[in-house]
Write a structure and sequence with these properties.
The structure is a single chain. This protein is an alpha/beta fold. About 35% of the residues lie in helices and about 20% in strands. The chain is built from 13 helices and 15 strands. Strands 1, 4, 9, 10, 11, 12, 13, 14 and 15 form a nine-stranded mixed beta sheet that branches. Strands 3-2-7-8 form a four-stranded mixed beta sheet, with helices on one face. α4 packs parallel to α6 and α11 runs antiparallel to α12. It is globular, with a radius of gyration of 19 Å.
């Protein structure tokens, strides 16, 4: 496959993300409803990908987002700086003392264990990034003057508000104007789209966005809900993936959107909250490539596993333009990321490549 990446010499950033970054409050092994203390992390569906590219794979990355200018916003910035991601593209928004003008998002997430599934409780309405307009970011300066090789964004950000729908589309169009490769994770969340028009709005927005996307990421529900494609033979509750039907759907999507260079999804079968079967597939050039199976993968914290898959996939595509190898990078990185707490990866590239090569869990001394 050929992605036609811009030269490193003409770009300040290998990759940037556009989306919301929230403060995750984690009760550890306990429950949100009974917690007396929380551990704080940063996280967001789009940001997690770009942080993985920086922290695990050593790429030059930046985050396009907005924060309310207060102590929580500064805490978020500090977390991002610890991850090595450039913060110069953040828009700081004035707010009042109680968040009436805008605020920073909170995400309470418990990990689950065994038969008790993970639980998330977001508090993210009226956030700074959901109110940001295209005029709040100089996209021509970012993608034209500074230079960006890859933009990653997604449907979680698009679903935040009517305003974010417009902002993400303007960012993608501008990125494409300057030759930046665009990846997009559909990440359909019905509860988020419900406030701005439901599934009809999701399809209206995502069908327009899809026209400009090079690498589309999404599972069967995402493609059905966001782009209107049906998968033959799927069960009503989408408990299991009909792989043959999914392959047919991808080929149909590629005909509808000939701009797609690659389409990828994770394959997860949940045995319990702490044991999953895990793999991934990637379509490119009319072929489907499947990563090795991680049967009975033991999970510490599943949140962010899909985002870490995306960052491994993107790294593999950027470095090799080989879809078969890239999907292995993605699956291995996602698997490793779920063995540690928090939304973001704690893996290193050499660990990812060792897992790809079949390394076990023996003690390293």
């Amino acid at each position: 496959m050929e992605l036609k990446l811009r030269s490193e010499k003409e770009c300040m950033f290998d990759a940037v993300s556009l989306g919301e970054v929230m403060l995750r409050l984690d009760p550890g092994e306990g429950r949100i409803r009974t917690a007396r203390s929380f551990r704080a992390w940063e996280g967001g569906g789009e940001y997690n990908v770009i942080r993985g590219l920086r922290k695990c794979f050593g790429m030059k990355t930046g985050v396009i987002t907005a924060f309310a200018e207060n102590e929580i916003g500064m805490l978020m910035e500090d977390f991002i700086l610890q991850g090595g991601v450039d913060t110069s593209l953040i828009k700081w928004m004035k707010t009042d003392g109680i968040g009436r003008i805008c605020r920073n998002g909170l995400n309470f997430t418990e990990r689950g264990f065994g038969i008790r599934g993970a639980v998330g409780c977001s508090d993210r309405a009226n956030t700074a990034i959901s109110k940001a307009s295209p005029e709040d970011f100089d996209f021509d300066y970012i993608f034209g003057k500074l230079g960006v090789r890859w933009l990653h964004t997604g449907g979680i950000y698009a679903a935040l508000s009517e305003q974010s729908c417009k902002t993400v589309l303007e960012a993608i169009k501008t990125a494409k104007k300057y030759g930046t490769v665009v990846s997009y994770d559909l990440n359909y969340r019905p509860s988020m789209w419900s406030a701005i028009g439901g599934i009809e709005k999701a399809q209206e927005v995502n069908k327009e966005i899809a026209k400009y996307v090079d690498v589309m990421i999404g599972n069967e529900e995402d493609f059905t809900a966001c782009l209107g494609f049906n998968i033959e033979g799927n069960d009503e509750n989408l408990q299991t993936l009909n792989l043959d039907g999914y392959k047919k759907m991808i080929n149909e999507a590629a005909k509808t959107y000939p701009n797609f260079k690659a389409v990828a999804t994770t394959l997860r079968e949940v045995k319990t909250a702490t044991v999953n079967d895990w793999s991934a597939i990637c379509w490119a050039d009319g072929q489907i490539y499947k990563a090795r199976d991680y049967k009975g993968l033991e999970i510490m914290d599943r949140v962010g596993g899909g985002d870490s898959f995306a960052s491994g996939l993107i790294y593999g595509l950027m470095m090799t333009q080989d879809a078969a190898l890239a999907v292995e990078y993605g699956a291995a990185h996602g698997a490793l990321a779920m063995t540690t707490p928090g939304d973001t990866t704690m893996a290193r590239k050499k660990e990812v490549e060792a897992i790809m090569g079949g390394a076990g869990a023996r003690v390293q001394r």
